[in-house]
Amino acid sequence: MVDDAKQWGDIRAKIVSKLSNEHFKIMCSLHSKYFNHRYNEPCTCNKRILRQWILDLDNKLLAD
């Protein structure tokens, strides 16, 4: 989890207004790992879900 937290922290620092494709895939992978669901790539047109997943990972990995 420490490596995942560091990886997410590095990615999170780079997210300003857009999410690169590479970072998007890492976010999807981490979210599926920590929130117990199969790997899924939500539609990038749905910004609400993307924001929620970012907040979920922030709370799970960066809260400590």
How does the overall form come out from the CA principal axes?
globular
Q: So how many helices?
A: 3
SSE string: HHH
Major β-sheet annotation: none
Report the radius of gyration as a whole number of Å.
11 Å
Any low-confidence stretches, pLDDT <50, length ≥5? Answer: none
In total, the number of domains comes to 1
- Overall pLDDT, averaged? 91
Strand content: under 5%
The count of strands amounts to: 0
What share of the residues lie within helices?
Answer: 55-70%
Measured distance between first and last alpha carbons: 11 Å
Summing up helix and strand content along with how strands pair, one would put the structural category as mainly alpha
Textual characterization of the structure:
The protein has about 60 residues and is mostly helical. It has one domain. The protein is about 65% helix and about 0% strand. It has three helices and no strands. The mean pLDDT is about 90.
